[in-house]
């Protein structure tokens, strides 16, 4: 190879500043899953595949327990890679992002309908780290969980 030539066959792509998770933000994940600060999950599109419908039912029943993509895929008789590809093609969001959005929606409901502490709610929806949970909640709903609860109590 001649001296001074670029050895890589791939051109460097510009990096977008201010974006997270491979060019997507938490707000993008929530929007794709149908959450617009107060809406419900599932408005993106209805799954047309029974395996995806079954996986979504399993995800909704987990109640904060850890659930791997491999376990979900096995329960619908697919490989993890095929399951992820199929889920993303049908739902416009990855299974991990969908689980994350489900948990944050469950947290929102618990915060508005119960007297559990933020730490207890975070634990109930499967988040072991309270500060990470608070950052994620704020990125989706625009306010910290404790502030969200206060505004919900004022509305009631």
Structure overview:
- This protein has 156 residues and is an all-alpha fold.
- It has helices spanning 26-32, 50-61, 69-75, 80-91, 95-113, 118-124, 130-141, 145-155.
- The chain has a single domain, classed as Orthogonal Bundle (Arc Repressor Mutant, subunit A), CATH 1.10.10.60.
- The longest helix is centred in the middle third of the chain and has 19 residues, at 95-113.
- The model is unreliable at 4-21 and 35-43 (pLDDT under 50).
Helix content: 55-70%
Please name the fourth-level CATH homologous superfamily: Homeodomain-like
Second CATH tier, the architecture: Orthogonal Bundle
CATH C-level: Mainly Alpha
Average pLDDT score: 77
Global geometry: elongated
Strand/helix succession: HHHHHHHH
Number of helices: 8
Derived structural class: mainly alpha
The radius of gyration over CA amounts to 19 Å
CATH fold-type name: Arc Repressor Mutant, subunit A
The number of distinct structural domains comes to 1
End-to-end CA span: 72 Å
**Main β sheet profile:** none
Assess the beta-strand content as a share of residues. Answer: under 5%
